[in-house]
Amino acid sequence: METLLAKVSIMLAPALFAVTMHEVAHGWVADKLGDPTARLLGRLTLNPFRHLDPIGTLALFLFGFGWARPVPVNFNNLGNPKRGMIWVALAGPGVNLVLACISAALLRLLFLLGAELVATGSLVDKVLQPVALMVASSLFINALLGVFNLIPVPPLDGGRVLTGVLPDRQAAFLARIEPFGFIIVLLLIFYTDIWRLVLGPLVWGLVGYLSGPAAPLVHRMAGILVGS
């Protein structure tokens, strides 16, 4: 119970903001490229409850990765549907990577302000410790969402990008597997070495590069997240 409460208290705000910005980015770029569907349905909002998927949110807390309710996009409304699909798809992971960079900059600043952010009992440390953990959580969650969503299997964003760059025949075949996409992704995550060999090194390489001397704090936070 204490571990679950720690996860919720540290992760809730960063996780909600990360998935909200991810979906809003998709809808905003689609709107700019000619499809107003998300805007007309009220999905261009920072209200996280308009974007949350209950199962995806639960998975984020339990397993360290998750998803939101996809923003509806009618690609036929885009001036160039295939090229527009690529930009709309890249917008979500792109904003997560930007948020990861911003979080890393804030974390480095907090690290400088609080030395190594080791609790000494002072009021400053008592304030900096939870703030630093939340920022570290934001860095890890956004790096994870950015990398995870670039897996080239639809309906993940990487699959949309691949559909947009492939020739029509191959793109049509890839689109046909979209109804089974999440099952394929779950099988890849839990029954192959894709996390150990590909995704994990990418996520931790990015986190380490961005966070620098504050990387151990991010590892500590990730340990809370995954229950290790």
Topology:
Blueprint: H1 2-32, H2 37-40, H3 54-63, H4 81-113, H5 123-148, H6 157-165, H7 168-176, H8 181-191, H9 194-211, H10 215-226
Number of strands: 0
Tell me the number of structural domains.
1
Gyration radius, rounded: 18 Å
The overall average pLDDT, rounded, is 84
Strand content: under 5%
Q: How many helices does DSSP assign?
A: 10
Overall helicity: over 70%
Report the uncertain regions.
117-123
Write down the overall geometry: globular
Question: Which class of secondary structure composition applies to the elements?
Answer: mainly alpha
Order of helices and strands: HHHHHHHHHH
> What gap, in angstroms, lies between the N and C termini?
14 Å
Sheet with the most strands? none
